[in-house]
Design goal:
The complex is a heterodimer of chains A (about 100) and B (about 900). By secondary structure, chain A is of the alpha+beta class. Chain A contains 4 helices and 3 strands; from the N terminus they run H-E-H-H-E-E-H. Chain A has a 3-stranded antiparallel β-sheet with strand order 1-3-2. By secondary structure, chain B is of the alpha+beta class. Helices cover about 50% and strands about 15% of the residues of chain B. Chain B is built from 27 helices and 27 strands. The radius of gyration of chain B is 38 Å and the shape is elongated. Classes of the chains: A alpha+beta (about 100), B alpha+beta (about 900). The interface between A and B is medium-sized, with 15 and 21 residues.
Chain lengths: ~100, ~900
């Protein structure tokens, strides 16, 4: 869900996605970056994201990933699920959102 | 379902795995580069920037491995790796690989060759429609399994009318009859097969042109023929308008109603039939008791073989009640057609498969020995792998994969060897096996080769692989890095070598027995002089030479002896001919000795009777033992005479002189036939003659004058006058006069053909062809086995010497002479060989009895053969040990001690 969410606005490459996740979570979500890439390929095979090589002058080619329509649907569904889960946890633990 | 989906995903990922791995590598590198650049911008040193980037990145290799494991199929992946590793390992040891592949190729190739023959002869479906429902019904003797006979015509008719288990029953004669065709073109001898009109439709065989037979075609006087493709091409130049033309057989013109496709046959031993003609069981001129046709039937769809057999058992009981004498000890048997056709060849082919199987086992033992030795040299490598965490199962799989790779390569080369072997086999075998033109390496045979390769790989690979993975690094280190071999490992090598020697011994004994047989056959005195003797046969058939009378009798016309007299005169006039004689075919007839009480029917003596002219005995060079031979004095008006052979004299007149005795020949069968017109006086005794070939046991024979015979005979017996053999003694190479002989016959009557024209020594050679063929084939197998066994012993001794180099060095350092080292090694080799020979002798005693029908005057346990082969094996084993033994004596003790 984290990866799909970063690709919602615009296509990005792997390094950028890793930076975005770290930045947006204020460092709370930490992971070994190398493990990100097999996830990209899994998502690609499932048709949720699409990758393409982009070569800009003065740069090595990079693989940009973008969200597919199925990916958008999956993201929406995942957000709903997480939201319901969080509400349930909140209710059960007596947490209060400010 | 999910598991299947996962499997299919992994399978598809296997296909693109290389591309994905490359992509992963590129992206990971790029990510690292970007992170490093950011760290540099943050002010870190290049080294520190890279280090921090890697730390943040995580364990790259672990991720790649994990990703690799997620993709593809782990089993396939590891197999692929093992195969690549195995190829590299084999490539690094070219000598070992070459010897192993060559051994396996020989063994697998030999089996491929023999299986190709067995596949065509035994396993390929018969070329008929729904062949599994075709059966043969024959009469089976209940006391002797090999005694079978065909039913009488009346019995077949009864089955056609009453049997419920079969949708169709037909009769086909199991042999082809020779007849002369004439008319357009030269007279030609052809082979004609008789069958009932529905026989072709029963088998599902259709003519390529025209139609099959109908019942009208079988009416005597209205008979038609279907010709073979070969005859159509040869005699009619493949004329598309051949249908409706006639073909003259003897005097009768038969219309051609069909042409069969090339390669048509009704039985595998009748592949060169030229014509087929129908007979109606009810309308033919034979008696109802005649036994002539084999009964073919097609089971109904809903009837099993057992049910059909049960019905025929009922018929057998009725026959036994109606004809108790004829059917005492006889019953009926329903047999699948494929089984009937395979029966004669099955045993022979199984014997050949056994021999080729032995060769393969020896090859496997060789390769197993090589692998065991190689395993010893790779001990350190294996021990290190085990210590680094490689699983034993994984290593075992890797080593076994290497063996399988070796066997598959050996199998691939074996297909080539098999192909070459098949060419040699077909050249040697002539038409000795059925369906020879269908023998090829394809389909089933390739599958067989693959299966044999895999089984072979497992057979010779499993023990060495298992042994190799039993080691530990601790054991290795304790033994100081020496290639220490346990007694157990050496024992395995020795056992394998002993087995090789034993197997090779058995094959050599088989070949030796057959060589002995052929030598004896070649030395047999056939009773006459076959050198410079040309023979040919003539069969007269037209009404010019024989008249058909009532009551199933025929009369030979005066034209018949006139024809043969003129032919003989022309033969003698050919330059290069020293003498010529004409003799009838030999016919077995019952006889009665005048003045003796008639014996019971089943004990009436029989003899082979031949009518000969005066110069017959001189032309053939028969030895006269007593009295005189047939000569010009013996005419129709004088006392009819006979000359007998020594076997008849011994059997019928054991305690008396046969000269002066009178005997009657009979026609029409023992006890029911009629006597010859006059009794014959025995005037001479000659030596036995083996007309049927050197292997023939001499039977009682009588020679009568061709001037002293009756003129009317029961139908078949008239052939004694109509079919004769021409004997031409030449003063030059006989085959050079073949054309002149043919011409001499043609000049007397152009409608008659002489066939089987051949030098007599060539004919004798052909008659022992069967023994010679099996001698050659077993000889080839035995030679292969011997070569493999020699390689095996040599390899084992070389390996043993290399292993014991240290020991020999110490011995010589302590004062042992080089000659004693040599003796020690040779003794070791000799002991192994003797053990192998001992086992081989026991195995030979058990197995050579299966060769008994291929032997001539040689017992399967012939002691001389066993002794000779033992000596040969010992000599060969000693020779193969000699080089390694010499190498052992060249060990330098100083060098050995220095290494220690």
């Amino acid at each position: 869900m984290l990866i799909l969410a970063q690709l919602e606005i615009r296509p990005s490459h792997g390094y950028e996605i890793a930076q975005l996740i770290e930045a947006r979570s204020n460092g709370a979500v930490a992971f070994h970056v190398a493990s990100l890439y097999p996830i990209f390929y899994r998502l690609e095979r499932r048709g949720l994201i699409a990758g393409r090589w982009v070569e800009k002058s003065g740069q090595r080619r990079r693989r940009y990933y973008s969200l597919t329509p199925e990916g958008r649907k999956m993201l929406a569904a995942q957000r709903r699920t997480w939201s319901e889960f969080m509400q349930a946890v909140q209710a059960a633990a007596g947490l209060d959102y400010a | 379902m999910r598991a299947l989906r996962r499997f299919l995903l992994r399978l598809s990922a296997s296909a693109t795995r290389r591309r994905d791995e490359e992509r992963l590598r590129e992206e990971l590198e790029q990510h690292l580069a970007l992170q490093t650049a950011e760290n540099l911008r943050a002010g870190l040193s290049p080294l520190e920037a890279r280090r921090q980037a890697r730390l943040k990145f995580g364990a790259v290799e672990s991720v790649r491995e994990h990703y690799r494991d997620e993709q593809g199929l782990p089993g396939l992946d590891s197999l692929g790796r093992d195969i690549r590793y195995g190829i590299r390992a084999l490539w690094r040891s070219p000598g070992f690989t070459l010897v192993a592949v060559a051994s396996l190729a020989l063994g697998i190739g030999a089996n491929t060759t023999i299986f190709s023959v067995a596949n065509a002869a035994l396993y390929r479906p018969l070329p008929f429609v729904d062949p599994d429902r075709l059966v043969v019904i024959h009469e089976q003797n209940t006391k002797r399994e090999e005694w079978q006979r065909v039913p009488s015509l009346s019995t077949i008719i009864e089955w056609q009318e009453q049997a419920r288990s079969f949708e169709q029953i037909e009769g086909i004669v199991g042999s082809a009859q020779g007849n002369t065709i004439s008319g357009e073109g030269t007279a030609e001898r052809v082979r004609i097969q008789f069958l009932t009109p529905g026989a072709f439709s029963l088998l599902g065989v259709k003519p390529a042109r025209g139609r099959t037979f109908t019942s009208e075609d079988a009416v005597p006087g209205n008979r038609s023929v279907i010709i073979s493709d070969g005859l159509w091409q040869r005699r009619f130049a493949a004329d598309p308008r051949v249908l409706g033309r006639t073909i003259r057989v003897d005097d009768i013109s038969w219309p051609i109603v069909g042409v069969m496709p090339a390669g048509t046959w009704t039985a595998p031993w009748l592949q060169n039939v030229d014509m087929w003609t129908p007979i109606d069981l009810r309308l033919n001129e034979l008696t109802p008791q005649t036994r002539w046709l084999t009964t073919y039937a097609r089971l109904r769809q809903t009837v099993t073989l057992e049910q059909a057999q049960a019905e025929m058992d009922g018929f057998a009981r009725r026959l036994a009640e109606q004809q108790p004498n004829a059917y005492r000890d006889w019953t009926l048997k329903v047999e699948p057609l494929a089984e009937t056709y395979a029966r004669g060849t099955r045993t022979l082919l199984y014997m050949l498969m056994g021999a080729s199987g032995f060769v393969l086992l020896i090859a496997c033992a060789n390769v197993a020995n090589l692998l065991l030795a190689r395993g010893t040299r790779r001990q350190r490598e294996v021990a290190v792998c085990l210590s680094l965490g490689a699983g034993r199962r994984r290593l075992f799989q890797q080593l076994l994969t290497e063996s399988l790779l070796l066997s598959l390569i050996g199998g691939a080369v074996g297909v080539l060897v098999g192909w070459g072997g098949l060419r040699i086999f077909l050249a040697m075998a002539a038409d000795r096996f059925p369906r020879m033109d269908e023998i090829a390496i394809a389909g089933n045979v390739l599958l067989f080769t693959l299966a044999v390769s895999l089984v072979t790989g497992i057979l010779f690979g499993i023990a060495p692989a298992w042994r190799a993975t039993r080691l530990t690094l601790v054991t290795m280190l304790k033994e100081g890095g020496r290639q220490a071999t346990s007694g157990g490992r050496h024992r395995s090598n020795r056992v394998l070598a002993v087995c090789e020697v034993a197997l090779a011994f058995v094959l050599l004994v088989g070949a030796g027995l057959m060589i002995n047989s052929v030598l004896r056959l070649q030395r047999v005195d056939v009773g006459y002089n076959p050198e410079n003797l040309l023979t040919g046969r003539v069969q007269l058939g037209s009404s010019k030479y024989v008249e058909v009378l009532d009551g199933n009798m025929k009369r030979v016309t005066p034209q018949t002896p006139l024809f043969y007299r003129e032919v003989k005169e022309r033969l003698v006039a050919i330059p290069g001919v020293r003498s010529a004689a004409v003799a009838s075919a030999a016919y077995t007839q019952p006889l009665r000795v005048v003045g003796r009480p008639d014996p019971p029917r089943d004990q009436q003596p029989q003899a082979s009777v031949q009518e000969v002219g005066p110069v017959y005995f001189e032309t053939l060079g028969l030895s006269l033992l007593k009295g005189r031979v047939i000569d010009e004095r013996d005419r129709d008006s004088t006392q009819w005479v006979a000359v007998v052979n020594e076997t008849l004299a011994r059997n019928i007149f054991p305690d008396e002189d046969p000269l002066g005795k009178l005997l009657h020949l009979q026609f029409g069968g023992a006890g029911v036939g009629r006597d010859d017109e006059q009794p014959r006086l025995i005037v001479g005794v000659v030596g036995d003659v083996k007309n049927g070939g050197p292997a023939q046991r001499p039977m009682p024979a009588i020679y009568t004058s061709d001037q002293q015979h009756q003129w009317e005979y029961p139908s078949g017996a008239s052939s004694i006058h109509l079919q004769k053999t021409l004997y031409v003694r030449t003063s030059q190479e006989p085959s050079s006069l073949a054309t002149a002989v043919r011409q001499a016959v043609s000049e007397v009557d152009r409608d008659q053909a002489v066939f089987d024209v051949m030098p007599e020594d060539q004919r004798l050679d052909l008659q022992i062809g069967r023994w010679r063929f099996f001698r050659n084939l077993y000889g080839i197998f035995a030679a292969m086995a011997l070569v493999l066994a020699v390689v095996g012993i040599y390899g084992l001794m070389s390996y043993s010497v290399a292993e014991r180099r240290h020991e020999f060095g110490i011995r010589m350092a302590l004062g042992a002479k080089r000659s004693s080292v040599l003796r020690r090694v040779l003794t070791q080799g000799l002991v192994l060989s003797l053990a192998g020979i001992g086992i081989g002798i026991v195995a030979g005693f058990a197995l050579t009895r299966f060769l008994s029908n291929l032997l001539f005057e040689v017992k399967p346990l012939d002691p001389l053969t066993f002794l000779a082969v033992s000596l040969v094996m010992m000599a060969v084993a000693l020779l193969s040990c000699y080089v390694p033994a010499r190498r052992a004596t060249t060990v330098d003790p100083a060098n050995v001690l220095r290494t220690e």
